[in-house]
Amino acid sequence: MENIKENRDVILTKIKDIHKKSFFKNSVPPRLIAVSKKQEEYKIDDAIKIGHRFFGENRVQEAIQRWENRIKDYNNIELRLIGPLQTNKVKQALQIFNVIETIDREKLAKSISDNIDDNIKTKSFYIQVNTGNEAQKAGISALEADSFIEFCKNDLSLPIIGLMCIPPENEEPAMHFSLLRKLALKNNLAELSMGMSNDFEEAIKFGATSVRIGSKFFGNRNY
Q1: Which of 106, 48, 108, 47 is nearest to 83 (CA)?
Q2: For the chain, which residues make up each domain, given as ranges?
Q3: CATH says 4-217 is which class?
Q4: Closest by Cα among 50, 37, 41 to 4
Q5: pLDDT (tens place) for every residue of the chain, 223 residues total
Q6: Residues 63/79, Cβ–Cβ less than 8 Å
Q7: 99-103 and 78-81 as β-strands: parallel, antiparallel, unpaired?
Q8: Cα–Cα distance, 43 to 71 (Å, whole number)
Q9: CA–CA gap between residue 112 and residue 156 (Å, rounded)
Q10: What pTM value is reported for the model?
């Protein structure tokens, strides 16, 4: 059995230590988003019991099955969609997630805009940028990011608050984190979701406001 409390304490200590030594030490330390996709249910309950409240899920349907009842018992949980969103799942996603981090194309942005009303749960959105221009990976290209951000914010009036990226596995993540930060600054966006289990320490040095950590938090997934 994983000692989730110990794992969490180690990660939070690292986050605070790196943040204190970074250029961003005067800002709030990054939030730890526990990536709960494909994890066993008892691990989720253990995390909640020790007080963790920020979770990331990759699939809408899995999130509904896992969280629909739990968020009735714990109304202070913040649930984030960090995986690709299909347009036919938009209505469901807006009812379960507090934050959607993966807007990456015009059709999806329009679908979200068409379904926004006072009754939805989602209040904040991020745009996912494909900083490595990888064909197999979701995200708007860095070259198109400025115009797409402007379209989402001005034409659709979406509450875009930040950017998200997943650097290529075989490249130095620092240059991708640096690029994402430059895009955020240029477009007056305060939030940066970047950094995962293997590169979150580097992401903090470049101003990450949240890091998405799965295996180092929960242990290995049960595929």
Answers
A1: 108
A2: 4-217
A3: alpha beta
A4: 50
A5: 469 999 999 999 999 999 999 999 999 999 999 999 889 999 999 999 999 999 999 999 999 999 999 999 998 999 999 999 999 999 999 999 999 999 999 999 999 999 999 899 999 999 999 998 888 889 999 999 999 999 999 999 999 999 999 999 889 999 999 999 999 999 999 999 999 999 999 999 999 999 999 999 998 776 5
A6: yes
A7: parallel
A8: 16
A9: 9
A10: 0.95
